[in-house]
Design goal:
There is one protein chain. This protein is of the alpha/beta class. The chain has one domain: Transcription Regulator spoIIAA, CATH 3.30.750. It is built from 5 helices and 6 strands. The protein has a 6-stranded mixed sheet with strand order 1-2-3-4-5-6, with helices on one face. Strand 1 and strand 2 form a beta hairpin. It is globular.
């Protein structure tokens, strides 16, 4: 039931026609394009536990928009013990080689901001911020 409600209220129909709405894989996987402070961004929203096909779609977006700073958001990426969740590990491993990916946002767990050790070692500044709406 919750899945049907999500699509009814926050599906593609709600955002189609907005200047910042880039496109979609389906009602649960979308992307937006925006510019802030002179920098171009792509925000990729992935459903909880995305499939291989959905991750391939996201990877294609990161390639297509390689000159934009990339933000990936998914429900479950980071656990409260400073490690990736099972779903987060899959997302991270699928997308980590893209130099434009600089920020991953997630919810699911309730804890202060964290960054897994393997992410901190990268040369670019990175931040993982669990959030709850």
């Amino acid at each position: 039931m919750a899945i049907l409600l999500w699509a009814s209220y926050f599906g593609v129909a709600r955002f189609s026609g907005k200047s910042w709405f880039g496109g979609f894989y389906d009602d649960y996987n979308t992307y937006s394009l925006f510019t802030a402070s002179g920098m171009d961004f792509i925000l990729i929203n992935l459903q909880y536990d995305p499939t291989t096909a959905e991750l391939d779609w996201a990877e294609g977006l990161l390639d297509t928009y390689s000159t934009r700073r990339a933000i990936v958001e998914s429900h479950s990426i980071l656990d409260i013990d400073d490690t990736f969740t099972a779903e987060g590990s899959i997302v991270y491993n699928a997308l980590r080689d893209h130099n434009n990916l600089f920020l991953m946002l997630c919810g699911h767990m309730h804890a202060p901001p964290m960054a897994p050790p393997m992410w901190r070692e990268r040369e670019r500044a990175q931040l993982f911020k669990p959030f709850t709406l």
